[in-house]
Structures are given as C-alpha cells and as structure tokens.
## 1
Amino acid sequence: MNWDRLVAQRAPEIHGWLKATLPALEQMWAAKGLIYLSNGAPAIEQIPIARLRQAHADAWEEPEEALSYGDGGGYPPLRQEIARRMAGRGVSVATDQILVTNGSQQGLDLVGRALLDPGDIVIVEGPSYFGAMQAFDAYEIGYRVAPADEHGLIPEALEPLLYEEPRPKILYTIPTFQNPTGTTIPDGRRRAILAMTRAANVAVVEDDPYGDIYFTPDPVRPLRSLDPDVIYLGTFSKTLAPALRMGWMIAPEAVLRLAFWSKEGIDMMSDRFVQRAVVRTVENGWLDHYLDGARAFYRERRDALLAALEREMPDGVTWTQPEGGFFLWVSLPEGYSSDDLLALAVEEGVGFLPGSCFFPEPAPHRGFRLSYPSPDSETIAEGVRRLGVATRRLLGA
C-alpha cells in the first residue's frame, strides 16, 4: 500500500516540538538509573488503590445498567457529584450543563471540533501545556503566544494579541497552578483578562486539572466562577488516577450541544462502569477528606524540591514558588538553553522536560519544568544535586 497517498494531509505526523526534541528525549528515556524530575502523574502512594478496588466491585451490583448504553452526557449521579464539587469552588452549575469526558484531554479535542476551522488562531500562554497544542493541531490552526510572568498571564501583553489579524477564536489558559510553571493568575488579572476577552469576543478555555491540589488555606476560585461563558475543563486524573480517564466539560449551551454530538460520534459515551466506580469512590464526602491528606503530602514534596534547589543551584538560576499543583519552572540565565542542559543532565543521571516542549514552535528556551509528586523526597534531593552539577557545567560556574 502507498500510505503516503492515503494519509490525510491534515493528519499531524508529530507535534513540532517533539520533532525537535525527540532525539534528546529518547536518549533520556533510554538512560539507566536516571532520576526523572518532570513526571506529571500523581504519586503512586496517593492513588487510593483499595478504595478504587472496592468501588469497582460495588459497581457490579447493577451489571445490566453498568454494562449497557446510557446517557451520552454522563452518569447522572456522577454529574450531580461534579456539580456539588464545583459549587464548593464557587461555580454554580446544573447537571445538564456538564458533559462527562474521557479525561480533560478529550475535552480539549471537543473544543477544537466545536470551535476551530483550518487557519484559526488560538492564544496560548508562554509556556503552555503541550497536550493542548497536540489536541488543537489536528484542526490545522495557528498560535499566538501570550507572555506570562511569575503571576501568570499578563493582561497588558494579552490585549493587543486579541485584535491582531486574523482575529483569534480561543484563549487557552491554565490559570491555577499552571502546567508547566506552577503559577497562579491573581484575582485582579483574572477579571481584567475576562473583560478583555469578552470585549474582543474571544472564547476562554479554562483547563483546571490541579485546582484541588492547593497549599493555601482556601481553594482558588476558577475563572468560570466569574464568567458563565468560560468553557471549563476538569478531571479526576490528578486527584484519583489518570487511567480512569474521567473528566468533564462545563460550557455554554451553544458549545456543549456541539461537544455532546461530537462525542456521540467519537465514542457514544464515557465508560459507564468506571463512572459508577468513581461515584462510589468519592461519595459521602470521602474525596474531600482524602484530599486534605494529599495536599499535605504534595506540600512536603514541593518543600523538598524547593530546599534542594536553594542548596544546589548556582547563582543566576531562578524558579517559581508554586502554591499548589505539581510543577515549578526553573529559568537559566539569559543566553543559555535548557536543551543544552538536558544533554549534560542525562550524563549526570537526571532528566526533565526542557522549555522547548512547551511552546508551539520548536526553539531553544532557557526555562524547564520540574515536578514534585514523585519520586520521594530523598530521591528528589539526589536528583537536584545531579542537576546542580550539570547546571554548573553548563554555566562554567
């Protein structure tokens, strides 16, 4: 077969950043005894395995219901639980405004199907989550990168991007404990950004995987709590387990209707058996209590990473101070590349994702992502020690 003739022109072979960084990443993944400091999954110690096992057993109590076709929008008790949890974060939503998805990643694809045509423009934060760009790439779109600082997206830098031609359709943002930087947009900036996007008629897509992993006394209210036109994506991947593939979308009716019918054409519905198991896992306030312990666990891991960076990094290297989530962003001095650092780091037995992974166009960047859910605190300390050696080699310090 001549597959070159048959493959769709729009089918992305591989995201641009991965083409550029794949050789270095393959070298890292093949290294023996390497400590990897960019894992985006919850710590295995924090996945409630026994609770999930029991919940899946309980889901067999009604096998005829669990294993048949059902409501394409999602299992009603699960949508009710999601609505209850969202109310606790300041978002009032009816169950029929919620679409259960196969993780928030499917939500990103459904946004693309509903809103994007070839040639459209999406604004992303610089840096941003590469998985969102992988999802949007399938729709043959272009990007603009909005500058961000230690407080997240900068409204004054965003505003002119909203009016450049061709006019953008979407602002994609992770405003709370952002991936990859760990930053959180403060309330004043959030309100300014929403006012700007409304005036420019640009849709805001809020990706909120980490909102429940906060180290402050109170949770951060989502953008959706300030504006009912925000398209909100949530997930249980970071609070329960990523393999469950249970997420949700909250959106205005015009978008949700299109997303619903798109999902019907993709997979008809999310796994009804797993939806029931998730309800039985989180019901009666269990998840709220469980997250208290998870937050303390991740706070301790974050503190271990911050202490190691203070101890091991040479002068001129800076990093963010996350108040929740899984990540922080390290910046080398101007003129240095985290791609070059990765090659030295692998020689020292430590790995991470360089900044070039988090921008639409592949180019060297001085920043890179570190995470703290895993490995354990002692291994984090050893990994950062190795990273410090590599960094001093790069800087000649």
## 2
Amino acid sequence: MTEAASSRRRITILGSTGSIGTNTLDVVAGLGGREAFDVMALTGNGNIRLLAEQAKTFGARLAVTASDDHYADLKDALSGTGIAVAAGKSGLAEAAAADAGWVMAAIVGTAGLAPTLTAARRGADIALANKECLVSAGRLFVEAVSKGGGRLLPVDSEHNAIFQVLEENQRHALERIILTASGGPFRNWTLRQMGSVTVETARAHPNWSMGLKISIDSASLFNKALEMIEAQQLFRLRPDQIEVVVHPQSVIHSMVGYADGSVLAQLGCPDMRTAIGYALTYPRRTALPVERLDFARIARLDFEAPDPERFPALRLAREAMEAGGVAGAVLNGAKEVALDAFIAERIRFLDMPRIVERTMAMLSQMPAAASIEDVFAADEKARQVAAGLL
C-alpha cells in the first residue's frame, strides 16, 4: 500500500444507493473524496448503474449487490476497473468484514442487521441509520458494539440531535428526552378523513425528502414509534423518560431535559447531511454546505401533543418498550407486513396499527432473544401472524 493510501481514512457504506447512502457520499466528496477517504466497500441492491458509478467515482475496492440476480450486471458494469464484485448475503458479509474503521449502516430492514453486527463485532465505528439493529436486536447489538470496542454514532436526525446535546458527565441529572415529530401530512386530518388516505397522499412528507416506505411510516408516526424504541436502547433510558411532541417546522430535532429544569435542544434546517457529517467527523465539527437557519424568517416554533387516537403507533411503541424481550422485533415485523399491504392497496391506512396491535397481543409470550437467530425467528413469526390478519 502506498503512503498516500495508508493516510486516507478507511470507510465502508452499507446501502450506498439509498437516500442515506447517497447523502453520505455527497458529504465524503465535500470532505476530499478519494484523496481523503479509502472506500473499502459499497453495497446496494437493484440500482446497479448507480452502484457502479459510485464505486468508480470513489475508487471503492469492493462493490456488492445484495441481489444474486444482479451479480452479472454489476460485474459487467465494473469490468476492467479492478474493483472486486460480490453479491448476496455472503457479499454483504464480505463488505462488512472489510478493514474499514468507520461503517455507515444504511441498509433498510432486517437485511441490514447481520452485516452491521459483523462490522460492530470487529470493532468498527458504526454510523447507524438502520432501525432494525436497535428496534429488533437492541440489547444484542449494543453489546456487540461495546465488546468490539467501536463507537455507536446515531445518524437518525432525532437521535443524532440527542447525541450532540446529551453530556455523559451529566447523565446522573438526565430527566427526559423529547423526540420531535413533524406530525406528517395528516397532522390536522380527522379520524374520518384518515380513513380515506391513499398511498400518494401518505408519501407526501411536509419537510423531509425520503423514500416511499419511510414517508408512509412518518405519516402514520410508526417511524417515530421505532425511534422511541431506538432511543431507549441507544441512551439506556426507561420508557417513562421518553416523550414525543409534534413540532411542524422540524427545526428542533430533539431535546434533552435535565433535573434542574434546563432543556437543551439541537436545531438546524432539515438536511440529513448535518447528522451524517457529524457522525463522519465526530468528535470534530466540520463545515458543510447546508442551509443555515434564518430565525427571523422562521418567526415562530409550534408544538402540540400527538393524538393517541389518530396515531396509536406511539402507544404500541411504549407497550413494546415496557414488555422488552422480542416485542420490538414483533412490532417491526408486523409493521413491515402491514406497510407492504397498504402500499399494495390490500388494506387501509388505519388498518396498519390494528394489525400490529393484534400481532403483538398474539405473540406477547415469546421468550427473550439470546442470539441473533432468535431475533430473526421472532421477526419471521410476527410477519407470518400479521400476514394471516390481512
């Protein structure tokens, strides 16, 4: 290896073709690109053209498609470049095992769990954007990071905000954390109106630009429900220390309340590059080309309590936190089935939380997970039960 190569920071991006992944590479490019970073591996799924383009632009050593069916296409696209190509679960495992000190975990869903655990166990710093690692396998994942010796750097804007303002030397005085939610496109809709929600209306998030599934999860507040469970695991909190408040402007990303009555908040324009940049350069801060807040233009910040009748997902998250064990995995697995069914127009918008609640009730006696295999088993069982309720 040349001296120049050895001085570059080694990074891997699991899920480079999604929203988080493309924004991560945008930040990497702004901080010096391939002159400053040695990209060990990039992984994607079906967007082979983009994955190949990323691999060539950033000089990745390995490019992986999660789909075995796309292996030949990726190999053809990178022919003659010297970039290694792999596919499937074994390919993802190879990418996670690559010698990168910093790994962006941005693969969506349970597919991201195993490779992220692999990276954590070998001691990499994990920039975490995959929800399932904490929602479904929280204790096991946090233990893996701790034993591996790496750092857990949250990328979700809300958790990154808490990470920025939660002072570890003041943890004894921590009283509560307050997660903010925009309220989504149906914040002012009646329950009757929400009965006629379509996929197109549900995907229109008022503040953030996101993919289809996460936009619908945000509209139902299931995204916030998952973030509650994530926060419990990330910051070692009791369920009663976690609050949610609706904040339509999405300027305050989250708040931390202390025993003396002080509340510290992190503010910023809605741009994922802020959280990604902080995770990439932590503990330093670096200049980023993001929009600056103009307080005079904002003029006001509004807050309101979420309506538990219209948005029962938050109650279900609290029940899962209190139950512990595999309840988070069950909630998430059932939610995924219900979400897919809504997108396919097999169920209505308000049916999603009902299916999740019934699945959680039917699987409330499942034993706690002792291994990652137990987490996968709970997830699969929840999906089977939820599918039977459609």
